[in-house]
Structure formats: C-alpha cells, structure tokens
Amino acid sequence: MSAYLTALLLALIAMLGNGEYFLGSSMLSRPLVMCTLAGLIMGNVQQGIIMGATLELAFVGSFSIGASIPPEIISGSVLGTAFAIGAGKSTAVALTLGIPIASLVLVIKNLCFIFILPYFVHKADHYAEQGNSKGLDRMNLLGGFFSINLPIGLVVGVSYLLGSPVIKSFLAVIPQFIINGLGIATGLLPAYGFALLLKMMVNKNNITFFILGFALAVYMKIPVTGVAIFGACLALILTGYSAFKDKFHAEPAAVSGNSTTNSGQNGGIDYEDEEF
Predict the structure, then answer these.
(1) pLDDT in tens, 90-141
(2) For residues 26 and 176, what is the distance between their CA atoms, to the nearest angstrom?
(3) Is the C-alpha dihedral spanning 89, 93, 99, 101 positive or negative?
(4) For residues 264 and 182, which has the higher predicted lDDT (pLDDT)?
(5) Phi-psi category of 90—alpha, beta or left, where left has phi over 0 and alpha has psi -120 to 50?
(6) What is the chain's alpha carbon radius of gyration, rounded to the nearest angstrom?
(7) Vertex 274: Cα angle to 270 and 275 (nearest 5)
(8) For helices 117-130 and 91-115, what crossing angle results, to 10°?
(9) pLDDT above 60 for 219
C-alpha cells in the first residue's frame, strides 16, 4: 500500500472518529476503536488492539467536562499507532508519541473553534430566528464538518506523509534503555488514568463499594470479571430491596388510611344510633 493511500485511509479513520456531531456519542472516538482501525490499515490488527487498550487506559478519564477540553485523543491514537507499527516499535512508543500529538492537535482544534465554528453558529442563530429547521440542521452538519472533521482529517493525513520518515529515523537512534523506560511509563500511565476517573466518581457514598472490590480482587484473588458480577448482583439487591421497602411502607399506610376512614364512618353511624 502506498504512503499516500495509507495517509488517506488514516485521515478517513480520524474523520470517522470525529463524526459525533453527525453520529452522536457512539464512542468511535475512543483509542480502542481508533487504534484497532489504524492497526488494520497498517497491516497489524493485533498490535493495533494492544496499543488501543494501552492508550484507552491512559486516556480513560479524558472527557470534555464543561469548558474543559481534553487532548485530541483521536489524532494521538491514529498517528501514534501508525508511526509505531510502521517503525516496528512497541506499545510504549505508541503511547509516548500519542500523548504529545494529542496535546498539539488540541491547539489546532481550539483554533478551529475560535475562527471557523462561530460563522456556522451565527448562521444557525439566524435560521433559528426564522424558524428554518432545515437550515439549522444544515449548519450543525457543516459546522461540525469544517471546524472539527475536515481539519483533524487533514492534520492526520499530512502528518503521516510528512512525519513518517522523520519518525522512523528518530526512533532508530533512540537507545534501548530509553525504550525500556518508556515501557515502565506505559505501566504507570494507566494507573494515572484510573486515578483521574476515580477522582470524578468516588465519594463518601460509594467508597465502601470501591474498597469491597479492591478486597475481593487483592485478598480473595477474584478476577475482574468475577468482581463485576458481584458488583452487578449487589446493585440489583440494593435497588430491589429499596423498591420493595418503599412498597412495603406504602401499603400499610394505605390500609391504615382506609381503616381510619371506615372507623370514622362507622363511628358516625354509632353516634347517630345513640342519638336515636
């Protein structure tokens, strides 16, 4: 496969990952999907899956929250995998290349948001004032394509064409001890990714369940699948018990209310009988 065709296919993969404005939140942008497709293009699907799993752990907490935009993981995943497989290097190299590439492309993405997207947003506002729903939909599609999809695709394609020979030459002169150090860093970054995720999720209400899962995995040697099964069963038990408890407390109240009404009615009749 020629370099130009490979660059084109990688660009299309990146554009597919950036298609959430058209396809919705389909999770196609995640490194596990992007690296696998990039590995398919580069002729090594297995290595692409391995690199995707590693990058997925590193970027596990990488989601846009409010005005905070995370690194552009799509370009980092595609280019990191393509360069590493093309140079015949390990997963550590893909991770080392992917993270700085994602941070650099984020700058380009922000520039597109500043200089390209506002035009389509203002046009969409204009169509909204007119009640033109078709024009509004068209601005949504065109704005996403020209401000996100097309620029990232061009960056990935051009970067692969211009950067592949340079990256191969650069990797050839990297000493082995540095590659080994990158392998150690590869093992640390997933832990960092999980820490970012836990920072958002763990609080005083669910920390007990986290400790329980940790104890099951470490001290009882239960695999992750087993811990997940225990967690699912525990969730069903707790939610089922809560629903049952609410129903149990609701029914006596209803019965008590009916009894009170009946007794009140009977009491009235008794009083009438007494008057007679």
Answers:
(1) 777 777 777 778 777 887 887 888 889 899 999 999 999 999 999 999 998 8
(2) 39
(3) negative
(4) 182
(5) beta
(6) 29
(7) 120
(8) 50
(9) yes
For residue 258, count CB atoms less than 10 angstroms from its CB and return exposed for 0-12, middle for 13-18, buried for 19 or more.
Answer: exposed
Q: How far apart are CA 245 and CA 192, in angstroms?
A: 40
Domain boundaries, the chain: 1-199, 204-247
Q: Is the dihedral of CA 39, 40, 42, 44 positive or negative?
A: positive
Q: What residues contact 204, with CB distance under 8 A and at least 6 apart?
A: none
pTM: 0.61
Residue % of the chain over a pLDDT of 90: 17
CA–CA dist 158, 167 (Å, integer): 14
| Phi (first) and psi of residue 221, to 5 degrees | 60, 35
Which of 121, 105, 32 is CA-nearest to residue 72?
105
